[in-house]
Amino acid sequence: DIAARGIDIPELQMVINYELPEGTDDFTHRVGRTGRAQHKGSVISLLTIHDYNTFSKIEKDLRLNIKREIYQGFELTDKQPRQKRPVKKTLREKKGYIDYDKKRKYTYAAQKKKKSEQKKK
Length: 121
Hints:
Layout: E1 14-17, H1 24-31, E2 42-45, H2 52-61, H3 91-95, E3 97-100, E4 103-106, H4 108-120
Parallel strand pairs: 1-2
Antiparallel strand pairs: 3-4
């Protein structure tokens, strides 16, 4: 993106954004390499589902109405396998508490641990 600022490539007809620029300024400088000096130019931006919000913000900031084309086999999906997050224990579970009828009781392991810690003191 830094190199794109100030570079003049005569009669550049197309810019392809393989990775979407992070912001409006970078997008402007990158696509501004095409269509200079009364020449026509085109820009293709390849997007993933994760780029969609950034691209919509760039489009809004620059007041653009960009034609979107989705090619067969390249539909926008999020069908990547999701990784399951490990279930975190609550603080009560970490301390070994179990609620039975709203009464707090220690599990056997927690009681044993507490007794061994008291003996060490």
